[in-house]
């Protein structure tokens, strides 16, 4: 009876997988990425299905049990009007995981288009657009957001647009640098010799080759977007009541810390921190896989 022989993948097998498959398998081998992904997926599951396994209605108050400490009945305690903190933390992930990804998507689409435009045409177009983008980047994101929200009014749509457009210049700068390098390669010259339009050359020829830095920048910006949404909600300009949003809950309860009611703020803050850490770990994993 002959023994069964096993062989490890050869270099030829690796090459036959293709670049996308290699990135995928690198991510599966990355403990950093898998840890970050697990954290993010946990909060996504809470956002989608949290109301089904939250022990209490996150919006229902119970004045008789206000500011109750963590216990077997209320794992994370209750807030100043008796709402269950654990239920609010679980369901509170919904708004931030709606607004932040949409804002990041808007930033990525806008920034990619601007980066392709400035990197491909260069010259006057590059100078004018780049100076405008640099002016926007010189102003802190929160200041820009506050000015825009005061002028346009507070709503989820306004927050998405403001954060998205605030982060777009940063992504545009990254894409521009990648496009400037790609523009000098032979395949771009070949497209120009075929008299392909500028739009075709930018979006069909160049764009697929600058996807890696765009992916890395997008995942990094998502972490910043989560912090921006939470900050605006804390300041009263983001998600509005009666949402159990984490930043809004911290804003409503942070005055309780002085009285020793730490649980009304701590668990929401830990939720924000864990989500941002998860996103950043996933971003590091993506960056490592694309640079292998």
TrEMBL record:
Q: What biological processes does GO assign it?
A: transmembrane transport
Instruction: Supply the PROSITE patterns for this chain.
Output: ABC_TM1
* Name of the protein this chain belongs to: Peptide ABC transporter permease
Quick check: keyword Transmembrane in the entry?
yes
Main subcellular localization, coarse class?
membrane
Localization annotation: Cell membrane
Key words, A-Z: Cell membrane, Membrane, Transmembrane, Transmembrane helix, Transport
InterPro entries attached to this UniProt entry: BP-dependent_transpt_permease, MetI-like, MetI-like_sf, OppC_N
Query: From which organism does this entry originate?
Result: Mesorhizobium kowhaii
Q: Any keyword Acetylation?
A: no
How is this protein positioned relative to the membrane?
A: Multi-pass membrane protein
* Pfam families named among the record's database cross-references: BPD_transp_1, OppC_N
State the family it belongs to: Belongs to the binding-protein-dependent transport system permease family.
The residues covered by the ABC transmembrane type-1 domain are: 93-283
TM region(s), chain numbering = 23-50, 96-120, 132-152, 158-175, 222-240, 260-283
Q: Which PANTHER family match?
A: OLIGOPEPTIDE TRANSPORT SYSTEM PERMEASE PROTEIN APPC, PEPTIDE ABC TRANSPORTER PERMEASE PROTEIN
- Please indicate which superkingdom the organism of origin belongs to: Bacteria
- Example of a GO cellular component annotation carried by this entry: plasma membrane
């Amino acid at each position: 009876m002959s023994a069964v022989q096993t062989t490890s993948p050869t270099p030829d097998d690796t090459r036959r997988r293709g670049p996308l498959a290699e990135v995928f398998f690198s991510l599966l081998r990355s403990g950093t990425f898998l840890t970050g992904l697990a954290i993010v997926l946990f909060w996504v599951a809470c956002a989608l299905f949290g109301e089904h396994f939250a022990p209490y209605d996150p919006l229902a108050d119970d004045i008789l049990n206000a500011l109750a400490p963590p216990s077997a009945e209320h794992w994370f305690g209750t807030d100043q009007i008796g709402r269950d903190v654990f239920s609010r933390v679980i369901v509170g992930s919904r708004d931030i995981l709606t607004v932040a990804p949409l804002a990041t998507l808007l930033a990525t689409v806008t920034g990619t288009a601007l980066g392709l435009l400035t990197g491909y045409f260069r010259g006057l177009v590059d100078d004018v657009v780049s100076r405008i983008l640099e002016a926007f980047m010189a102003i802190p994101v929160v200041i820009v957001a506050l000015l825009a929200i005061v002028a346009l009014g507070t709503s989820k749509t306004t927050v998405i647009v403001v954060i998205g457009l605030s982060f777009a210049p940063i992504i545009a700068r990254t894409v521009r640098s990648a496009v400037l390098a790609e523009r000098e390669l032979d395949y771009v010259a070949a497209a120009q010799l075929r008299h392909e339009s500028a739009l075709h050359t930018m979006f069909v020829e160049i764009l697929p080759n600058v996807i890696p830095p765009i992916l890395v920048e997008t995942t990094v910006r998502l972490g910043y977007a989560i912090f921006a949404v939470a900050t605006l909600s804390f300041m009263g300009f983001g998600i509005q009541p009666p949402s159990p949003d984490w930043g809004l809950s911290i804003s409503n309860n942070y005055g309780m810390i002085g009285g020793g009611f730490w649980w009304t703020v701590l668990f929401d803050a830990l939720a924000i921190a864990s989500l941002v850490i998860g996103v950043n770990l996933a971003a590091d994993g993506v960056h490592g896989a694309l640079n292998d």
